[in-house]
């Protein structure tokens, strides 16, 4: 990737990794490993990519092993953001076999999820290269994994939309109905929030956009518009607002959307239903 992404602080993910391990270990621990692996058995295990893609989330995934047994040796062979080939090793874990086996599924679940997001983001970023548009994610994230999934988007070369309900105003169709219209909603929002809080409004038609352009907002979400309508909308905005296209955008259509001149392209499926990246953990004989 062109710009390295700042790593996450462990405090941002240790709680959720711990919860995932506890979910798996239950009340009795790993009865399979405890039953058939002698306590002093040592092992060396390699994480290997099974197809090409972009790696993300090594630190959170591998923390599963250090939480189970701090004496395990955990070593990364690539960095987050690295493009890997099929069969390439990305990390190695050495030490007591039992905790390696007990942490395997939690580590693979996290790593596969985050690498899948980073890989698809990188694919989309390549698809719109040269247009000036940016790929962004949404709040449609897996509960509890938002910080990690949004990190994976950044690793893949994308950008983040708001992280939660508290860092920006996004007025959508249901807000407009409840507030009594576009002008009422915007005027109340502007009077309520501080000067550091951005306001974005979702519109479905060019008529709504025309009204919005008379109001004090920072960005407009152009929802479920065709490329032809998006181009008209961008012309109407004429650089006065950040323009965001959203709704029904696929890898096949993303280039056409980017070429309309929009600033951002947001994709909920990038985090809520992206394909898991296939990574295996294989033991080697000692």
From TrEMBL:
It comes from the Bacteria. Keywords: Glycosyltransferase, Pyridine nucleotide biosynthesis, Transferase. It catalyses: nicotinate beta-D-ribonucleotide + CO2 + diphosphate = quinolinate + 5-phospho-alpha-D-ribose 1-diphosphate + 2 H(+). Pathway: Cofactor biosynthesis; NAD(+) biosynthesis; nicotinate D-ribonucleotide from quinolinate: step 1/1. GO terms for biological process: NAD+ biosynthetic process; quinolinate catabolic process. GO terms for molecular function: nicotinate-nucleotide diphosphorylase (carboxylating) activity. Residues 30-115 form the Quinolinate phosphoribosyl transferase N-terminal domain. It holds the Pfam family QRPTase_N. Residues 117-282 form the Quinolinate phosphoribosyl transferase C-terminal domain. GO terms for cellular component: cytoplasm. Its EC number is 2.4.2.19. Transmembrane segments: none annotated. Belongs to the NadC/ModD family. PANTHER family: NICOTINATE-NUCLEOTIDE PYROPHOSPHORYLASE [CARBOXYLATING]. Hexamer formed by 3 homodimers. Involved in the catabolism of quinolinic acid (QA). This is Probable nicotinate-nucleotide pyrophosphorylase [carboxylating].
């Amino acid at each position: 990737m062109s710009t390295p992404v700042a790593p996450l602080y462990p405090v941002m993910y240790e709680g959720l990794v711990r919860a995932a391990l506890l979910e798996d270990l239950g009340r009795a621990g790993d009865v399979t490993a405890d039953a058939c692996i002698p306590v002093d058995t040592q092992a060396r295990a390699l994480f290997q990519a099974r197809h090409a893609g972009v790696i993300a989330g090594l630190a959170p995934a591998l923390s599963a092993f250090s939480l189970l047994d701090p004496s395990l040796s955990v070593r990364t062979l690539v960095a987050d953001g690295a493009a890997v080939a099929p069969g390439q090793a990305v990390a190695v874990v050495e030490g007591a076999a039992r905790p390696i086996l007990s942490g395997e599924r939690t580590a693979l679940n996290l790593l596969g999820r985050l690498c899948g997001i980073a890989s698809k983001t990188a694919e989309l970023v390549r698809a719109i290269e040269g247009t000036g548009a940016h790929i962004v994610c949404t709040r449609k994230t897996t509960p509890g994994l938002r910080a990690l999934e949004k990190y994976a988007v950044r690793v893949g070369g994308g950008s983040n939309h708001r992280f939660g309900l508290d860092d920006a105003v996004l007025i959508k169709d249901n807000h407009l109905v409840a507030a009594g219209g576009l002008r009422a909603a915007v005027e109340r929002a502007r009077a309520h929030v501080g000067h550091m809080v951005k306001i974005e409004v979702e519109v479905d038609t060019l008529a709504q956009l025309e009204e919005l352009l008379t109001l004090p907002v920072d960005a407009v979400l152009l929802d479920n518009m065709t490329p032809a309508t998006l181009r008209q909308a961008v012309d109407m905005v004429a650089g006065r607002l950040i323009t965001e296209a959203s709704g029904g955008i696929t890898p096949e259509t993303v280039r056409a959307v980017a070429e309309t001149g929009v600033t951002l392209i947001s994709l909920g499926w990038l985090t809520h239903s992206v394909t898991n990246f296939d990574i295996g953990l294989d033991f080697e004989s000692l």
